[in-house]
Each structure stands twice: as structure tokens, then as C-alpha cells.
Write a structure and sequence with these properties.
It contains three helices and five strands, in the order E-E-H-H-E-E-E-H. By secondary structure, it is of the alpha+beta class. It has a single domain, classed as Nuclear Transport Factor 2, Chain: A. The relative contact order is 0.15. Helix content is 29%, strand content 19%. Strand 4 and strand 5 form a beta hairpin. The longest helix has 19 residues.
């Protein structure tokens, strides 16, 4: 059993033990970052401030939501994952998105200088819903 933590959502795996494990720091950081983005404030017991809560912004006008999302992501990362440096944060960058569409797409390119890791995460409507 050589893993850093459980892979979410939990799935059984007899090779790793009871559950499938994350075996690289890159995947562990990405999984934790995704959890931070998708968790709504108040959803985590004993830590009501944790989470960006992207679902909250699904039906907000893009111009209003984009600045709030950007600010919330920066705030949450600096508090809960300060080892991450965000290099690029794109919100609904695809030209097909207009003010009238209820689509939320986020692309974040980040790195973790302490372990020389570079990666990206893309969150779309299907993951937010």
C-alpha cells in the first residue's frame, strides 16, 4: 500500500488496500484543489469558511460572477492552500459564452514551487452541477 490519500470519489481496490489511493503529489494537490473549488461555504463541518462554492455562481450574470469568483478563489487558496501559486485564472474564456448563457467554465493553471509541480485544472458545468 503506497499512497498519499484516498482517491475521491471512493472506490474499492484490492491492490491498494480497501480503497483506491492517490499515488502522486500532482494528483493529490489537484484533487484537494478541486474539492476547495466545489465545496460550498458552510458545507464542511467545523470549518464553515472553507470552500469557494462555485454552484452559487451558476445563474449570476457573467460580468458580476467572474470578479466574485476570481476574488473568492484567490482568498481561499491563500488561506487553505498557500503553497499553490496561481499563474492563470480564466473564467468562461470561450467566445461561444455570452451574458445570456448559464454556463460556468473555469481554467486554472497553477504551480507548487516547493515540489516543482506545474499543472492545470478545468472545471465545467457538468462538474459544478
Amino acid at each position: 500500500m503506497n499512497g498519499i490519500g484516498p482517491e475521491l470519489p471512493l472506490s474499492r481496490n484490492k491492490i491498494d488496500g480497501i480503497y483506491t489511493l492517490v499515488t502522486s503529489y500532482k494528483e493529490e494537490v489537484k484533487q484537494n484543489f478541486k474539492i476547495l473549488l466545489l465545496t460550498a461555504p458552510g458545507e464542511r463541518m467545523m470549518n464553515p469558511d472553507f470552500g469557494v462554492g462555485l454552484r452559487h455562481y451558476l445563474f449570476e450574470p457573467h460580468s458580476v460572477a467572474a470578479s466574485h469568483i476570481r476574488q473568492k478563489i484567490q482568498q481561499q487558496v491563500s488561506k487553505y492552500m498557500p503553497f499553490i501559486r496561481i499563474n492563470t485564472l480564466e473564467i468562461n474564456s470561450n467566445p461561444q459564452y455570452t451574458e445570456d448563457t448559464n454556463i460556468l467554465s473555469i481554467k486554472i493553471i497553477y504551480d507548487v514551487p516547493g515540489i516543482s509541480l506545474q499543472s492545470s485544472i478545468i472545471i465545467g458545468n457538468e462538474e459544478i452541477n
